[in-house]
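User: Structure tokens for both sequences below?

Assistant:
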Amino acid sequence: MVLRDKFQLTDEQINGALSYLEAHRSQIEVEYQDVLRTREEIRQYWEEYNRDRVARIAKMPRKPETESLWAKLAAQKAQRSAEKQ
């Protein structure tokens, strides 16, 4: 879906937005890099926060009724890994 359709924008609104982006490109780039940096900090925080919990869960024995699902997941991971190479 095109943004124009999703938000029901006119050509004038689209052109105004593009003009604004062009006129403020350096400021927008600085703000975008700040957003990326903040996002990475948040990701690292939650990864560290949950590290012990994830490790405990990984050590828990699997329920016998879920073994076929785990096998399917392993096969999908192997396929994705092979496709990347």
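Moving on to the next sequence.
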Amino acid sequence: MSAKAIDKMMTGVLYLIAGIIVLLLAGLLGYILVQGLPHVSWHFLTSPAKSFEAGGGIGIQLFNSFYLLLLSMVISVPLALGAGIYLAEYAKKNWLTDVVRTAIEILSSLPSVVVGLFGFLVFVLQFKFGFSILSGALALTMFNLPLLTRNVEDSLRQVGFTQREAGLALGLSRWETVVHVVIPEALPGILTGMILGAGRVFGEAAALIYTAGQSAPALNFADWNPLHIASPLNPFRPAETLAVHIWKINSEGIQPDAAAVSAGASAVLILAVLAFNLLARWGGNRLYKRMTAG
């Protein structure tokens, strides 16, 4: 066979493999959405869950998921920015830096259940935070921080060195060059990585079972004082998230409509994760076009 024929054949094989993967993914997502969307309604999204009766919703679990996500990103984003800037702009090339990067690679590949057990031993037991939103947020920080740090470092390294030289030639200090030249240029990639990281932790369950807990006590949405026990903003209350709720229903749910609640909650979770991914692509592309146009 000629080289051109072999090239066409292998290209066709690659397209076939890609098509099979896309069909499997579309089939899985389509099955979840077809089974779950008929059960999704405003009442379902806003009403609290019920343990022994039919007609419960996911309102508290949905709020817990977004609140825990917000708290974990507030903790992890500044740390990831600082670590990524240091590794990309200031860290010297030596064995210590190589060890740090290797540690980041190892931590980013840890199973989430291992992170959850670590959070249970350290935050729940050692620090005595108990099963709480704060314990879950810290565990998610440990889970997400290596990936965010790597994303920030890679985004900064993709900025050309000539732009750094231009900033220094204008009389800017090294830090001013990083802040006013390098970071704005790398911002689309950093923003995309942050949103994708948020979507990743939004659907996390294993790490939160051992840290945030498996209960969703009733909340008083008229009381936003974080010091009150029934306040939605209290970081020391247990908080069952949407992903944990799905796992709990499928493992030990005894309500009559457990299958419908599980299907509806799964559809909502899938749509939320898809929204995070689409927002990352749209936001990154839009920000990049605005910066290149300016």
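User: Anything stand out in the second?

Assistant: Residues 258-293 form the longest helix (36 residues).
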